[in-house]
Amino acid sequence: MYAMLRSTARVFVLLVCAVSAATAQTAGAAAAHTVVVRMIDQGLYGMAFDPTRVTVHRGDTVRFVQAGNLPHNVEFKSVPERTDLGASRIGPNLKALGDTYSIVIDQRFELGKHVYVCTPHEVLGMAGIIYVVDEPK
Description:
By secondary structure, this protein is α/β, with parallel strands linked by helices. The chain has one helix at residues 2-30, and strands spanning 34-40, 48-50, 53-56, 61-66, 75-78, 100-104, 112-117, 127-132. The protein contains one helix and eight strands. The chain is globular and about 35 Å long. The model is unreliable at 4-28 (pLDDT under 50).
C-alpha cells in the first residue's frame, strides 16, 4: 500500500510540474515584445532603417529610433487591403538623436507585409518592411 501511495505521489508531482512548465511557456509566448528599428545615415545609399525587415505579432510594439543626423520619419506606403492606419499612416519627423516614434501592432494591422519609407529619403531607398504574422512566438 505504501509503495502504491508513493508511486501515485510521484506521478502527481510530475503532472503538476508538466502543467506548470506548459503554462509558463504559453504565458511567455503570448507576451508582447518591443522591436527597435534604428534610422541611420549609412547604408547603400546613405540612409537606412536597421534592421530593414522585422517580423512581429499583434500586441508587439515597433519603436523607431533616430540614430542619424538628418530628420527621418515613417510613412506606410504599401499595406494589406484591410489595414486602416488612419493618421498613424505617417509618423512625425524625428530630428534629434535619440528621438523615438512607437507604433503598437494592433487590430489596425492586417496580417501580412507592411512596407514603409522615410518620406524625405524615399528616393534614396530608405525603406523597410514589417511582417505581421499570426504564428506562435
